[in-house]
Amino acid sequence: MKGKGLLLAGSAFLAIGIIGLALFGSGIVPLPFVGNTPAEQGAWIFRTGADPGGQPIPYSSGMMMRASCSGCHGVDGRGLRTPMFVSPNITYSNLTNPTGMLEPDGARGPTYTDGQIRRAVTQGIDAEGRSLAWPMPRWRLTDGEWNNLLAYLKTLP
Ligand code: HEC
Fold it and tell me: Which residue lies with its CA nearest to atom 2 of ligand 1?
């Protein structure tokens, strides 16, 4: 019967999914699509909020439902408008723009240095020393993770 066949196929698919997740979770099988360059590793952090081994990067504060940079700043990093928050364009070229970063409201903000971007991401303090609004989490990144993430931000057009 057609219906039964579909059901069987569905169950098999589900089983493969569960086994796959278990293997990834246990670290036996490496997570797919993570390259070896710093920017590729940084892209992974940007999109998943996890380190390349699959462990979520710890963060405090922030909005719990969205746990990756891309979830809040968009896959292109250019910022999003949602009913809950408006997030800025965090491409490297925007943050370090010598005339000041372009804010979501069209105003010019501060010009970030690399160290100040790191402080914003890990401590939630902007380039002028002000506390960033609550939706932005404070990420506990290792030196290596930060360097990879920065390398990726630099590749965003
Ligand atoms: C839950 C949503 C959320 C997530 C996840 C998030 N951000 Fe943000 N981020 C924001 C919001 C909203 C702001 C603006 C805060 C403000 O204007 O005070 C912001 C601000 C920033 C700023 C400061 C820019 C400025 O306006 O001065 C940087 C840099 C930044 N985010 C980088 C990141 C990076 C890198 C990640 C991933 C590691 C990340 N964010 C994840 C929501 C988020």
Answer: 72
